[in-house]
Amino acid sequence: MLKWSIIFFIVAIIAAFFGFIGIAGAAIEIAKFIFYIFIILFIVSLVVSVFRK
Fold first, then answer.
1. Quick one: DSSP state of residue 1?
2. DSSP letter string over 5-21?
3. What does the pLDDT read at residue 45?
4. Which residue windows are transmembrane per the record (predicted)?
5. CA–CA distance, 13 with 22 (Å, rounded to integer)
6. Are 34 and 5 in contact (CB under 8 A)?
7. What's the whole-number mean pLDDT along residues 26-43?
């Protein structure tokens, strides 16, 4: 999931470089959303692993 957020971030940078501001903005929003989901799932998995031991 982190890989996808990095891919969308790179797409946004390339789109912004070529002047496609709308596409860059959408790609940044998608990348942020996926990154936040990754962080939430990571924290949940850490908490679950701590309570299992």
1. -
2. HHHHHHHHHHHHHTT-H
3. 93
4. 7-27, 33-51
5. 12
6. yes
7. 90
Query: What are the sequence ranges of the domains in the chain?
Result: 2-52
Span 42-49, mean pLDDT? 93
If we measure between CA atoms, which residue out of 37, 36, 10 comes closest to residue 24? 10
- Model-level pTM greater than 0.70? yes
The token pair at 13 is 């940078």
- 44 half-sphere exposure, CB direction, 13 A CA radius: 6
Distances (CA, A) of 24 to 2, 44, 47: 18, 30, 35
Q: Give the orientation angle of helix 2-17 with respect to helix 21-52, to 10 degrees.
A: 160
In the chain, what is the straight-line distance between the N-terminal and C-terminal CA atoms, in Å? 26
